[in-house]
Amino acid sequence: MRTISFKAPSGAVVPFSELGFGSAPLGNLYSAVSEAQAQATMQAAWDAGHRFFDTAPLYGLGLAETRLNAFFRGKPRGDYVVATKVGRLLDVVPPDQRTGIGKFFDCPSRRERYDYTYDGVMRSLEASLERLGLDHVEILFVHDVDVFTHKSAAARDAHVETLMAPKTGGYHALRKLRDDKVIKAFGAGINEWQVAETLTRRGEFDVFLLAGRYTLLEQTALDSFLPLAEQRGVGLVIGGAYNSGILASGADPADGSAPWYNYDPAPPEVRERVRGIEKLCAKHGVKLVEAALRFPLMHKAVVSVIPGATRPEQIALNMRTLAAKIPPALWRDLKEAGYVRSDAATSA
Length: 348
Fold this sequence. Notes:
alpha/beta, 13 helices, 8-stranded parallel β-sheet
């Protein structure tokens, strides 16, 4: 697998595998995964060349980080890159009061508490390092400082102000951690490119994890954020390359189920657009999922894409998907039909 050597604006160099391993599914997201299956999946990812591992306290309320702890034991620390997230602290509560009932299964009884302050960032990292069994991580992402999570622009903006507040804001903790070489880079893991642009303009951020907002289906991040990122040397990790599923399942899944888009059943207009993309892919002998996985990796700012997996077979499928040959004529046709923007990068 190709390694993308990213030089952050801070000057640190971080080697990303072009496919990273996203650990949210191994936090028992939507269904429980056994410990044996989780470890086998991570080992399959390692054997396939994955060396960038993304996690967060939220994923299984600490479970994903704990599972990575066992997996990393015995592996040379310089051989892999770890990103975790800050912005949530986990409090012990009775089982019926925990976060994510019906979303996370068989996980610790913890309740999330948002904290984007200096002290909150330091406490969050300390707890994550304990769960991971590590003395440092390469990257910290501020987690979910967006409307999708906080439900309104006013609430999001209040959290951004807390993060960026002079002296007391979490941003200053991140800068100190980077200056002290506890971490190599920092940014935010978010669902909206607009927040990434705001933070890029207000501070010295290195890399963002952007979920679902630069995909074969959506490219509005090209309006202003991606040109800014390229200009500033800011890197981009892409999560949600399949927009929650529809770019993998297609507009009309074979089992008759409704396709998912942004964590909900896809609306008719989205399904119709995906049908058009599928038709052009089929014309060129390319599977929709193959084009969807390759597309974001062609942009200069993108350093890794992190599809999820809960079984070794899914790792193997991801590798086959990445290896698919895609004719340049497909990208030309997608642009001519208006499915891909004319200013989108469509060459390696």
